[in-house]
Design a protein that fits this description.
The protein is mainly alpha-helical. The protein is built from 13 helices and nine strands. Helix 12 crosses helix 13.
Amino acid sequence: MFMFDHKKIISSAVVASVILLGTACNASNDSDKNVTKAKVQEKVVAPVATTSGEQAIDGGAVYNVVDGMYTSYAVNTQEKKDFRYGRTPSKTEEVAWDVDVMPDGTGLPEGEGSVEDGDALYEEQCAMCHGDFGSGGKGSRSTYPTLSGGDIATLTSQRVGGNTDGPKRVIGSYWPQASTLFWYVKTGMPFPHPKSLSNNETYALVAYLLSINEITIEDEEMDDEYVLNREKFLKIKMPNRDGFIPNIDGPEGPTNVKKFLNDSNNYGNGTRCMKDCLDKEPNVVKIQHEIHTYEPAPSIARDLPLDTGEIKKEHPGLKTYEASCSVCHATDAMGAPDVGNKKAWSDKLTKGLDKVYANGIVGINAMPPKGGAADLSDEQFKAAVDYMIENSK
């Protein structure tokens, strides 16, 4: 009895299993028909960067933009139609900003001026910083450039073998175009009130500067009576006009630059190299003639006061200094002792503080009384002096 019942149970289980398996298979087939299979993720292949055949300005390759990518960099291909800030300049504003003077005469105004008049202007407006005859500033004004005193032959001079004279890069020896001189004098000089010269004054001053650089115009020397005008200016040929390579003038300028820089023989050892370029130990050249005229002298002393975190009260002379004194005393460019220059102020104080006050109040040398701020009281002026001294210790 037990065996019979057991066989019936086993048989029923087998039949049930077959039915379940068949149902599952049918359900699976129906599912395949009605449910979309999961997509297989495709591998994204980066666009292949191809060269356009064009050279960059440095001689390197220019690549094509492929699928919005320039090599490995994304490119914004959206068109920019307008701007959110600013406005279109007026014609008057465009004229005011368009002041450059080009070698072909574009932007060069009409006018005239003599070397003699330029000499007088130079003495009045320029000599205080650039020295007599453009020989360069002296002492505290030595940062101002020398304007004359060399010729084109000095450009090959090198400070080697004990030779202390380097290239003389002045107007007459280095500048390739005279238009740069006119443009700069007209728009940037004299310091600190640029654009104050008329066209005639600019022509006169430029004539003087060219004269002291021994520039000739059509083989004619520029003596005191020489009058420079627009017509004569356009005939100027500067000695170093062909001294720069590659030639960047004219429409072929960019092409010349690309061709020059693409040839590594012009600036290297004949091969392009970005890694492991040296085949032997480099020849280290040591400094043989050191410069010891730094002011202040280099030091490794760590003697600055500790920052205690305390908020200092504003010095009573600060605002007066900023409004009336900083133009000349913020740097040593004007020949005045600059704030922070310990030595310069120590030298002034050897005469005593009262003498420093008195000299400033009544004026001394090129400094007008109270630095030109006549509306200041004596006490306000002294407070400004105290501020400069206390910040120069």
